[in-house]
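pasting Adenylate cyclase for the record, 248 residues
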Amino acid sequence: MKTLDYNYKDRKKKVEEILDNTDKVNEVKKFPRDEDFTYTNAYKAWAGAIFVDLRDSTTLFTSNNDVDIAKVIRGFTSEIIEILRKDLEANDLKEIGIRGDCVFAVYSTPLKTDIYEIANRAFYINTYMDMLNKLLKNRSLPTIKAGIGLATNPTLAVKAGRKSSGVHNLVWIGESVAKASNLSDLGNKNGNGAIVMSSVFYSNYIDNASEEAKNWWTQKYDSSYGTYYHGNVVKSAFNDWIKDGMKD
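structre below
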């Protein structure tokens, strides 16, 4: 590896240019196309986030051989990504990715129906976890659990990185992404159901849900995260198919 020769005097000018040229935050109903983000602007709009966080991954990684771990992680990530990205209108999905043992997605959510659809994807993921565990068990592979965190709020999106370097991404500033990540850590733990919603997410989701849906959720309070709602909702037809042996 070559020794770093960082020209801090020249780079000081570049930092000053970045600081002085960022001149506008556009408050919009819906986030624009990625190409509309520049290094001099930023956008603020409603965003919804979902984080699917593997429970007790340390035990999984230290108690099993590498091949088994690779199989489990690929089974976990591949179909969750498919559920998070499938059948979306162009530009609704703003970011999707993997952070360590967590799969996440960020969506533009100008309407309450958009928030309801994120919840629907969480229900599919929660059901898929049952399918995956049956497939893992049939192959004598370790079974797993996950917490699913959901949050929404007005969110600032800033294109960050270095121009012309190829290293850049949107940075999400606000409660939606951070809270969804934190709430995923509460799912499937300490008596909580797998799915955990922030209070703002729940209030928007429930407006488009059936009256019966209110019975699916339990309200709880945490000193760090405030009021949240947790449950273990699954997709009925999908769940019945799993119980019936997953026959073609």
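The longest strand covers residues 146-162.
The two ends are 53 Å apart (CA to CA).
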